[in-house]
Amino acid sequence: MRFVGIDPSTKTGFVALDESGMVLREKELTGVGSQDPKRMITLINEIIAHVQPGDIICIEGFPYSTQKAMFAGGLHHGIRNELYKRKLPYYEVAPNAVKKYVGVTGWTGEKGSKKRLTGPQKKKAVMQAVVNDYEYQHKSDNVVDAYILAQIAGDLFVVEETGESRLSVNKAQVIESIIQAKSDMKKKA
Q1: 42, 68, 80, 87: which one has the fewest Cβ atoms less than 10 Å from its Cβ?
Q2: Sign of CA dihedral 14, 46, 69, 85
Q3: Which CATH number characterizes residue 172's domain?
């Protein structure tokens, strides 16, 4: 069994962990070329080539705002469509939940003098939080996000299988929100 994290983007982060949390595969995937639809199709194919039956998969949810909304939307839907066609279930994790999982709120400073972290500052904060929490680092923030998603997949599996959680408050809240969203989707189906 593997725990997989996918952070879809023009440079997609992919991480697969084994049952003990050891990294089996860590890659930044880009597809072929710079012109769509070739780039998008080959990127989706690259991602799907790395997943296996039995993987517990977490994929980062759609970005709230992006300069490349058409590409992001197509990529996100394309990955989900391919996972569905292969009967590979997945959990969707909101972008802010990925950051919350490692204790990054998007703000820095003390109450009364807080400042919002910008994109690059927030990415650095997330990367440092992952080093602090898991002693894991990678030069790509996309791979680091995928690593967090793979950790979430592993923790989801443990919580759903055992009902037990020894997670921090932030992590437990993220896991609970994912489980609740899954339950809500089942009710709608």
Answers
A1: 87
A2: negative
A3: 3.30.420.10
